Amino acid sequence: MKSRLFLSRLLLLCMSIFVFSILKGQNYQLQQFTFSTGSSLANPPLSSGYILQGSVFGVISGPEAQSAGYRLQPGFYLGPLLLESPDGLLSLKVFLEGPFNSGSGQMNTDLHAAGLIPLAQPYNQLPWNYAGSESVGSIPSGVVDWLLVELRDAPSAAQATSATILSGWPRAFFLKADGSITALDGSNLPQLNDLAFDHNLYVVVRHRNHLAVMSSGGLPKIDDSYTWDFTNAITQAYMSGQKLIGAGAFGMFGGDGDANGQVQTQDKNNVWNLQSGLSGYLQGDFDLNGQVQTQDKNNVWNPNSGIGTSVP
Ligand SMILES: [Ca+2]
Ligand SMILES: [Ca+2]
Asked: Phi and psi (nearest 5°) for 236?
């Protein structure tokens, strides 16, 4: 009898539907589901932007479940939702010259295929010395490499110097084959929490062996996202500081082996030459195919030699 009572209660619970009216007026339909399925407090589902509290099992449904603004992932969870709305998302698109494949119009993901991309962000050394704790258990599919992103607050691009970097930045994200920049789950856009700026928001994108670029204008907020596409015109980079890499496609200059902001002889002599013939996650692998070889020097470094970054 007890088990029958339990089952009937469980059935009742399963059929119950709650409509939560959450902070800031967002409505989410929460469906109760079985206790044996889904997540626990110790293993909550992906729910960036939300805080899970309490002891209710359920699944998010309805159009808000994949809201571009809140990025709650459908799935079972434990707890009512306390909405912590982000101040916006960061929607960026950028190409790296090295791995760009003009045939596909996307970047190759050879480093990922070879299992060479480190699980923790690689910018924790000179010259970046970025101490961020970004790391993952596995590299999501379609990732080209790690990027380092800064936001700057200035009245004009020329005034957007390193002195104007917003507090809490830079941060490390993933670059995907299509040029999108994602949070560490490899699919959602990065969230901007506690975003405060006085003038215009400029973005600087850095890669470990390509020349950094900065947006030539302030990022407009389109829907929920501060948006910038570097790839569709050379002028999308401040001072046109990128190059034509395919039909109608623009990307960051490769070949800066020591990441000092200039593609120069020392990148060839002190970086590429010392690593030539080696495989791995290496600064001299300018085309990011996992090997340091003659084509890195000839196809990427050589045409760019003498070029410097235009980031102020
Ligand atoms: Ca250099
Ligand atoms: Ca290579």
From this structure: -70, -20
